[in-house]
Specification:
The complex is a heterodimer of chains A (208) and B (113). In chain A, the strands form two sheets. Chain A has a three-stranded antiparallel β-sheet. In chain A, strands 3-4 form a two-stranded antiparallel ribbon. The longest helix of chain A has 51 residues, at 79-129. Chain A has 208 residues and is mostly helical. In chain A, helix 2 (19-46) crosses helix 3 and helix 2 packs across helix 4. Chain A has six helices and five strands; from the N terminus they run αααααββββαβ. The termini of chain A are far apart. In chain A, strand 1 and strand 2 form a beta hairpin. Chain B is an alpha+beta fold and 113 residues long. Chain B is built from four helices and three strands; from the N terminus they run αβααββα. Chain B starts with 12 loop residues before the first helix and ends in a 5-residue tail after the last helix. The chains are: A mainly alpha (208), B alpha+beta (113). At the A-B interface, helix 2 and helix 4 of A face helix 2, helix 3 and strand 3 of B.
Chain lengths: 208, 113
């Protein structure tokens, strides 16, 4: 088995240096271990063993030849192999993070689209109710604001004793005596200061 | 020597033995293993699977350097030699080893008191 002979080793070779360099290291290690075996065989032959028995015994004593080649190549590459592993791990983490961010972004976009559709449906429902735009606001009237632009603007409030009502983020506005249509215009103007596009609010008024 | 009398090398000992062996001059891997075995009265048998990766690790650290040459048996072999960095490493590792064996000896003999 060759170090370069496995797809895993080839993949690492690409990260830790040119494949030719890894090949050269492996060839050098194998040549060194072959030289070791030759010396071991010669020693055994000089001790009286026949060449074949000497060869078999030398190989047996040596043990895991390919494992030793791989261990030597790993040692030779040393830090570069570690950095290659770190490189792969960091890349994997970044890719997973990127994947999650994209997934989350799509999910948020979908949620915003659903909310906008919901708001539009409510607005249409409001429009279809054909509440008279001339209805005038008085103390204690309950106001529902719906916006197709931003869910943040959809709110419920009421006309207080001093004739005002609170409409975040525009703040407290004097609404007593306004018609429903005038209130919608006032809110569209007041909210416009906080957004870059027309906010399109619809108002529903409930009176006792 | 019977196999049962052989000693397993503790962590770091192999590098120390290799450095010490190379103070007598450059040697190839097979000869380094032989020298360690002979000088330990056959008690230490270094396995090739440990010896060669250790040699390559030490070469990467700059403690030893390698060069192909011809052995006394007329065969090609890779010879290792100590570097200046390797000599410093040997001095440090030897002192550390002696402190450790002395401390272990004290504990085994019942403590310093």
């Amino acid at each position: 088995m060759s170090f370069r002979g496995t797809s895993r080793a080839r993949a690492w070779a690409g990260l830790i240096g040119p494949a030719t360099e890894v090949d050269a290291i492996e060839r050098d290690v194998r040549a060194e271990l072959e030289a070791h075996l030759e010396h071991a065989i010669v020693d055994r032959v000089e001790s009286g063993l026949d060449p074949e028995s000497a060869r078999l015994e030398a190989h047996e004593v040596f043990g895991d030849y390919d494992g030793t080649v791989h261990a030597c190549v790993r040692q030779k590459l040393g830090g570069r192999l570690m950095w290659a592993k770190i490189h792969v791990a960091v890349t994997a983490v970044l890719l997973v993070g990127l994947g999650l961010t994209i997934h989350r972004s799509y999910a948020m976009q979908e949620q915003l689209q659903l909310e906008a559709q919901e708001a539009r449906a409510i607005a249409v429902e409001f429009a279809e109710r054909k509440e008279p735009r001339e209805i005038r606001l008085g103390v204690g009237d309950r106001i529902t604001v719906i916006s197709t632009y931003s869910q943040d603007l959809t709110q419920k409030t009421f006309v207080e004793q001093d004739g005002t009502a609170l409409f975040p983020p525009a703040g407290r506005l004097h609404v007593h005596g306004l018609t429903r249509g005038q209130l919608e215009e006032l809110l569209n103007e007041s909210f416009a200061a906080f957004y870059t596009a027309p906010v399109e609010v619809y108002v529903r008024v409930e009176q006792d | 020597m019977p196999t049962s009398d052989r000693v397993d090398l503790p962590q770091g000992a192999l590098e120390l033995l290799i450095l010490r062996t190379l103070t007598r001059g450059q040697e190839h891997g097979y000869a380094i293993g032989q020298r360690i075995r002979e000088r330990s009265a056959e008690a230490l048998a270094v396995e090739e699977g440990s010896l060669y990766p250790a040699l390559h690790r030490m070469e990467r650290h700059g403690w030893i350097e390698a060069e192909w040459g011809t052995s006394d048996k007329g065969r090609r072999a890779k010879f290792y030699a100590l570097t200046a960095e390797g000599r410093r490493r040997l001095t440090d590792a030897k002192a550390s080893w002696q402190r450790m064996t002395r401390a272990v000896g004290l504990v085994l003999e019942g403590g310093a008191t």
